[in-house]
Amino acid sequence: MARIAGVNLPKEKRVEVGLTYILGVGRSMSKKILTELNINLDTKVQDLTEDEVNKLRERISKIQTEGDLRRKVQMDIKHLVDTGTYRGLRHRRGLPVRGQKTRKNARTRKGKKKTVANKKVVTK
Predict the structure, then answer these.
(1) For position 60, what pLDDT does the model report?
(2) The pLDDT of residue 104
(3) DSSP classification of residue 20
(4) At which of 24, 44, 60 does a domain end?
(5) Closest Cα to residue 70, out of 22, 109, 36, 32?
(6) Domain-located, residue 117
(7) How far apart are CA 88 and CA 78, in angstroms?
């Protein structure tokens, strides 16, 4: 089992897909890295040689991934909240940040439904 950037890659998957288990590496980045290193995209993770794994580790260490990326995202959100921007306010209140409607949807962001007494929807 290959361990890159602190993540165990699933050995039965293709390398192209296996690399996407690392936070910060998607399909396009994965393809780009593998073509740079001349590694076949269809190779299974378990079939990688130790030399290829070391090349992948070295190349991926140059990209911001996993803990560093999570920390950066959290710091960016904290900056928005601290500066009092509209997006920061939405983050603070736990509402959708990117302009989605909230009247009927947004349950994943808002949490479980809370019933408000005497609130009726008036239709005309």
Answers:
(1) 94
(2) 86
(3) G
(4) 60
(5) 22
(6) no
(7) 8
- CA separation, residue 101 to residues 37, 98, 110 (Å): 45, 9, 12
113: pLDDT confidence band, cut at 50, 70 and 90? confident
- What is the identity of the amino acid at 88? G
User: Looking at the structure, do residues 30 and 14 belong to the same domain, yes or no?
Assistant: yes
Decide if 66 contacts 5 (C-beta within 8 A): yes
Q: Is residue 84 part of a domain?
A: yes
- Token pair 């959290």 in the structure block, residue: 74
Are residues 71 and 49 both part of a single domain?
A: no
Give the burial string for 29-61 (b: 16+ CB within 10 Å, else e). Answer: bbeebbeeeebeeebebeebeeebbebbeeebe
How many structural domains are present in the chain?
2
- Structural domain boundaries, residue 46: 3-60
- Arithmetic mean of pLDDT, 81-105: 94
Tokens 């005497």, residue located:
118
The verdict on pTM exceeding 0.90 is: no
Given a cut of 90, whether residue 20 has pLDDT beyond it is yes
